[in-house]
Amino acid sequence: MERRKIHFVGIGGIGMSALAQMLSRGGDDITGSDREESPVTELLEAKGIRVAIGQQADNVPVGAQLVVYSDAVPEDNPERARAAALGIPQNSYFELLGKVSAGKRTIAVAGTHGKTTTTGMLAAILRDAGAKPTAIIGSLVKDFGSNFLHGDSDLFVVEACEYRDHLLELAPSVLVITNLEWDHTDYFPSLEALQTTFRKAIERVPADGVIVTDPNNLNIAPLLAGAKARVIDYTQEPAYTLRLPGEFNQANARAAAAAARVAFPSIENTTIYGSISNFHGTWRRFEYKGKNKNGADVYDDYAHHPTAIKVTLKALRAKVAGKIIVAFHPHLYSRTRDLLDEFATAFADAGQVYIAPIYPAREVDDGSISSEMLAERIRATGTEATALDSFGAIEHALAEVAADDTIMTMGAGDIYKVADALVAQQ
């Protein structure tokens, strides 16, 4: 194929960066830009992909044939505006992902919780079985050293996102649905609206395809009535020995194992058991970072939905003694407001919660919710909670945590930088 010149705006996004690696590996000339440096942009640079820090019109290279943008990049972004002025075609990340996956045996992993770990586990199992999959995963997988895995077969494993119906850009032959709860409340006004998207995805899986899910999940079961494809119950998989803690990771392992059996029927049980037991996990998923200056263990996790927070802290509580001190970075005003009651009770296993200012991402503050309001609601449940006005203030508070206690930073934003700073002080 002819070598294409493609520019990614927001290339530091976890999906964007994986797709950029895939296209670069396929021979395309890839450049990109992002607002700031991160472990992801560092990885791209190490792989020979040029990343400009800061977004401005002249980042778009001369002769670019396609500009790809993430959800976080608006139409009036200088680079997108420059592409429009020059008549350069533009695709969203998910539009291009749909095009790239066409003609492949696509396994899409969807659901509210556990997508990333399940996708990483599945890719690892298939790799170890010799199936040679290509995979795009929603975090840096320690076992691959990347969020992208290159393979030479037609198997394409991809983490799918339901937000803005992006899941429907894909045409998978195998659809994995880990679980389902109301989320992305800025787009889905209700659980029923979210279920509509998943119902459409289920009905689009062809009759010779497979849906891997928990058919007894109350939010999923009603959606399966219109399925043409065979449904496989991943909960029937056995328990696995894991490096990763928590019952939720057992569910992830079962889903990955069930999907691997479908995708590669000749796979042996010993391969599945070996891959799962040796899987080291991903960046920002119950990740141990080190110790603060006093010797307190520091963990970091991406959890930003109340259920994910609750089960992650439950797993940590089973693992450690002493108090658990949490630094939480709420993600989106809409999610924090709409799930406020659930957030209020999600921190029951913590002894102290520090709340960072809400990360707005694509939203504007309408004054209906704040980190102070969230802290107040958490305190009403009996858990100590304090809203602080900066990461610096949170870092200062966590630096004093004693060796007998445990720190966990949580959230979908960049709260992980606080964990990194604490460990660096040691």
Summarize the helices and strands and which ones pair or pack.
Layout: E1 5-9, H1 14-25, E2 29-34, H2 39-46, E3 50-53, E4 66-69, H3 78-86, E5 90-92, H4 93-101, E6 105-110, H5 115-128, E7 134-141, E8 146-149, E9 155-159, E10 174-177, H6 191-204, E11 210-213, E12 230-233, H7 247-263, H8 269-278, E13 287-291, E14 297-301, H9 306-319, E15 324-329, H10 333-338, H11 340-346, E16 352-355, H12 371-379, E17 384-387, H13 391-399, E18 406-411, H14 416-424
Parallel strand pairs: 1-2, 1-4, 2-3, 4-5, 6-9, 6-10, 7-9, 10-11, 11-12, 14-18, 15-16, 15-18, 16-17
Antiparallel strand pairs: 7-8, 13-14
End-to-end span in angstroms? Answer: 51 Å
CATH level-1 class of the largest domain: Alpha Beta
> Which value, in Å, is the CA radius of gyration?
21 Å
Share of residues in helices: 25-40%
- The count of DSSP E runs of length 2 or more, i.e. the number of strands, is 18
Mean pLDDT across every amino acid position: 96
Unreliable stretches covering 5 or more consecutive residues = none
- Strand order, main sheet: write it out: 8-7-9-6-10-11-12
Strand content: 15-25%
CATH topology of the largest domain: UDP-N-acetylmuramoyl-L-alanine:D-glutamate ligase
CATH architecture classification name of the largest domain:
3-Layer(aba) Sandwich
Number of separate helices: 14
